[in-house]
Structures are given as C-alpha cells and as structure tokens.
Specification:
The chain is 33% helix and 14% strand. By secondary structure, the chain is α/β, with parallel strands linked by helices. The strands form 5 sheets. Strands 1, 4, 5, 6, 7, 8, 11, 12 and 15 form a 9-stranded mixed β-sheet that branches. The protein starts with 13 loop residues before the first helix and ends in a 15-residue tail after the last strand.
Length: 498
C-alpha cells in the first residue's frame, strides 16, 4: 500500500490533525472490519471509487437521482390520509342494499369460499349477515353513493375517484399497515415517502421532503416510527414527524443559554470532524448525518413559521371545523398539511387511528366520521380553491376493510365487524386521477371482488406513476438483491388515470 492512499490533513487545526493521526491504516482496518481483500480492492480502484455511487445505488442528492422523474409527472406532491384500523366500507362508501333483505341470515359458504378468519371470530358458531344501520344517498353529477355519516365528503364526490376493489394479503393490523406503508408485511423496508424522497429529492431547502402528522389522542392500534422510516435507504430520506405542542420536532430547539450563532459554530466544527471521518471511512451515512444536521438548523426558523396557524382567517377555520383550532386534532392536521404542501413539501402523511370496530361499531364509526369527515372535505376544497388540487394527489384509506357478518352478538342497535382483507374501498383525488369516477365492483355482500381488482402493489405502482416514476426502475441494491417499493409485482391502474 502506498502512503498516498491515506487522506491528507484538511486543516491546520491541531485537534483535527490529532484525529487524522489516530486514523492510520491499522486503525482503519480494525475499526471498519473491511479486511485485506477490501483494502486491496480499494487500492486498485482508489478509495473514492470503492465507496462511490453505483448504477444500482446512485447517490441521491437534494434534487434526487439523475434521470428522475422518468417521465412528466401529473402530481407534484402527495397528501396521504391514512385511516388506521380499517374503516368499514359497508358504513362509508360501498352501498349494498340487498343486505337489508338478508340481515340476520347466515353468511353463505358460497360467498365465504373458505376464507380464513381472525382468531376473534373464528370460534363463532354463527356468522350473521349485517346490513348497515346508516342510510346511503347519491350525490353530485357522478351520482356516487355515500353514507349519511360522510355529509361533507359527499359534497366533493365529483372530485373523487373511488376504488372499491382494493385487496391485501394481510389480515392483522401490524403486517397490514406495514404492507401498505412499505410494500412488505415485515418491518425493515423503506416507506413510500422515503422511496419518493430518495428518487425525486426536494426543491425545498428549509423543510424535509417527507413529513408525518399523527392525530392526537385518537387511540386504536399502535403506530410505529418504522412506518415512515427509511429502511435500508440513507437516513436522510426518513419521514420527520411534526407534533402538536411547544416543540413540533423533538430536539430541534437550542439548549438553554444557547443561541443560533452558538449552534452555527457547533455545526461548522462538527462538519469538519465529519469530513475527516468521511474521507477516512467513506461511509455514506456520514454525509447523510451532516445533511440532517444542516436541515435541523434551517428548520429552527422554518418550522415555527409553518406550524403557526394563528394567521389563518376565521373562514378557513370554519371550513375545517371547530376542531381545527385545537392543535393535533385530525382537522388541525389537515389544515397543517395544506400549509406544508404550499411550502413545497413533497409528501405529507397524516395518520388517524381508531377505526378498529370489532364491537359497538354504530357508535364508534359515527364518532370517527364526525372527527374526520369535515377536515377531509375541507382539505380538498382548500387545495382546489388555491389551484393546488390539479397537481396534488390526495389519498384516503386504511389497511383493510370489515366483514359483512357481525363479530359478536347482532342486535337491533349494535354489532361489530371483523377484519376483511379481500375487498375494501379507498379513494384518490386531484392530480392525474379521474374525478367523479368509481372503479371496481364487489359482490352483494362486499365480500369478494367481482370486477377490476386492485392489489396493494398496484396502488403503489399507480401512485409512483403519477409522480413520474416507473416503479420497476426505482430500485436499491441491498444484501445482494435489488429492492423496490412494489417488490416483484404491481401494475399501474391506467383506467383510473386522466
């Protein structure tokens, strides 16, 4: 090995010189565990090339990977309103009038077709068909059927594309939510927002490209930060959660008796230390961490501004509903999402828990709709009136649907519904999708898909297509295999596109 492969000192700073002195070749071999073979490879190529970007894993800068988007996108940004717990399609958007005649009768074996049940209803001796106690009506020029529980969303049906034939492979919450957010039922894969951040980057210098909002005190199934994590992608592509309260982003504020200038000096010196580490080890995570530090510094100014809703006029609060004045509620987060989209944030993920109604569904889902319906519709209206809906994709939906049969005892006023992955309803609105349109059909029991099934991977492929990304081409090589959001499946649902 020749000495010229060892990095030269970058500074006359005595502390940095000492660090560089300690990082000799023997220390490098010991700490990195690369071994003599890797060092030999590095000597042939040069360390910069040994650790450089490759065609399989190109380095993604602030503006994404060169060559992306693959084609002209119809959507510039996405807001995904994820309804955690599995909203019942039978009480919201999938109207099944024949169930009133069959109410209380046993679910026919010809309909169930041996589908597995969860442990919560597998031991039931009776699976009684249960019609919704809530009325449905048709709205708009599209004459879409919507439950009386969703009066505000009903006003927007001519802007919405309903997909009534979603299906998933997962029947329990955690793997089903993980599947929807990462394309795989097991933890460890990058989330949707992380893939888009990695591929497309951001033109916003002061805010993350991927921001997460979680409704406060909504209860229900737990959510985990890995749902918006970067998986095996570089860490700067993970989602950043904004919270309600004094500190929207944890650890962003300066420590007591520090000011912005102190933080700037600290970051400048830390940058020098990390530069030495990067030149020595060539670990891309070092640059990722440096980028995160710089973003955090910029966010000290940008976050308080964007999270301050006090400058919104009264008529906007009235449109979103009284809850929008209460930080952290679903309605307030919908309003916050609009502000973030206006500021150039590419992907906003809003999580709302509490849709898991195994029992007492009539009262439970009524409360959920009251907390979410107005805020959802207001976000669509707000984006539309500002000219943003035409290039913003809005998504609403959960991880699976609910069963047509009652879980537990069926009475005149009460029933529950178990998990149902075989068919359920989601909707999209805005950039590139057909407005006032319904796609896919289920049987009279909303139990099986009769026409135009849409798998989770199809949903992901379509979402990425609208952002100008070919889902088969955006890949990352990890542990010897090229991974993508849609795994090895998925096709673009072209029939719902304009």
């Amino acid at each position: 090995m020749c000495d010229h492969h060892h990095p030269k000192p970058r500074s006359n700073d005595p502390d940095l010189k000492e660090i560089e002195k300690q990082m000799d070749r023997r220390e490098f071999l010991t700490k990195t565990s690369l071994g003599l073979g890797a060092m030999a490879f590095g000597s042939l190529l040069g360390m910069d090339k040994a650790f450089a970007s490759s065609p399989n894993n190109p380095i993604s800068g602030p503006n994404g990977i060169p060559g992306l988007p693959h084609f002209v996108p119809k959507a510039k940004r996405i807001v995904y309103l994820f309804q955690s717990g599995g909203p019942s399609q039978l009480e919201t958007y999938d109207y099944k009038p024949k169930l009133q005649q069959l109410h209380g009768q046993q679910l026919p074996d010809s309909v169930r077709k041996g589908q597995r049940l969860t442990g919560m209803s597998a031991d039931q001796t009776s699976l009684p068909v249960t019609s919704s106690i809530y009325k449905f009506n048709q709205y708009g020029e599209s004459r879409a059927w919507v439950s009386e529980l969703m009066p505000h969303t009903a006003e927007m049906v001519d802007d919405i594309c309903f997909i009534k034939s979603l299906h998933t492979e997962q029947i329990n919450h955690d793997p089903a939510i993980t599947f929807f957010q990462t394309g795989h039922q097991l933890p460890g894969r990058p989330s949707i927002g992380s893939w888009l951040n990695y591929g497309l980057g951001t033109d916003n210098e002061n805010l993350p490209a991927f921001i997460v909002l979680v409704s406060r005190n909504s209860g229900g199934q737990p959510l985990y930060a890995r749902l918006w994590g970067n998986g095996f992608l570089p860490t700067e592509h993970q989602g950043v959660q904004f919270r309600s309260g004094k500190d929207p982003v944890l650890y962003l504020s300066d420590p007591e008796n520090f000011d912005g200038q102190d933080r700037r000096h600290m970051l400048d010196y830390l940058h020098k230390l990390n530069a030495v580490q990067n030149d020595t080890y060539g670990d891309p995570e070092i640059n990722a961490r440096m980028a995160q530090y710089e973003m955090a510094y910029k966010m000290q100014t940008s976050v308080p501004e964007v999270t301050d809703l006090s400058d919104e006029p009264d008529h906007i609060f009235d449109m979103y509903g009284e809850d929008s004045r209460d930080p952290g509620t679903y309605a307030a987060n919908c309003l916050m999402a609009r502000k973030l989209l206006e500021k150039g944030v590419r992907f906003v993920q809003l999580y709302h828990q509490g849709w898991d109604h195994h029992g007492w569904l009539p009262s439970g889902i009524k409360g959920q709709c009251q907390r979410t319906d107005q805020g959802t519709a207001a976000l669509l209206k707000d984006l539309k009136q500002r000219g943003l809906l035409e290039d913003t994709l809005v998504i609403w939906g959960g991880e699976f649907g609910r069963t047509v049969y009652s879980q537990g005892k069926l009475t005149a006023t009460n029933y529950g519904r178990d998990h149902h992955p075989r068919c359920f309803t989601m909707w999209m609105a805005g950039a590139g999708v057909k407005p006032g349109f319904s796609y896919g059909e289920t049987d009279d029991f909303s139990y099986n898909i009769m026409k135009d099934p849409v798998h989770v991977h199809d949903f992901h492929a379509t979402l990425m297509h609208l952002m100008g990304v070919d889902h088969e081409k955006l890949t990352f090589k990890h542990q010897g295999r090229r991974y993508r959001l849609t795994d090895v499946h998925g096709h673009v649902v072209k029939d719902i596109l304009t």
